[in-house]
Design brief:
The chain is α+β, with helices and mostly antiparallel strands and 170 residues long. Helix content is 21%, strand content 27%. It is globular.
Amino acid sequence: MPIPANQMLNIEIQVHGVVGAGGSGSRFSDFVFHYARQNPALALPTKAQIDTAFQAAVVVPMGAALNARFLQSRNSIRYLDDALDAFADFSHAVVGAIAGDSMSTIIAAFHLGRTGLRGKNYLGKKHWFPLSESDTTSGSDDILNAGAITRFNTLGTAWLNGFTDASGNQ
């Protein structure tokens, strides 16, 4: 059943990528995001409009914070309100910007998103990887340095602020 034009729209966006081999095999990475549009009076956005806005607002800061072993392959977008809606894939190739040695893929920066409302539906969290050894205060330490904290704060702000597409939907 298609989504009526005046309905709230819940969107799932998956950022697919690969973390290049760092002593073992390469690893797939998927970052999943859920957004809801704020104004149902506006025209329904197309998935291409959503992809363009999301890529610029969220994925570019994500690439700026991750190690160069990360390579995005595509975004997959679907409307959660339509049970029959299939994912639409959009190819991309954002590469992690931080050069140098990478940490293990099991080590990640963690963001916890909270709202003023209680319950599991009002929480969000993200694990960002791969990190770089240069992101820590010393090579074997697990404390992020000031530069990494700034990059991950920018990424967290981009994630929580969302985006506005070409049709004006937020």
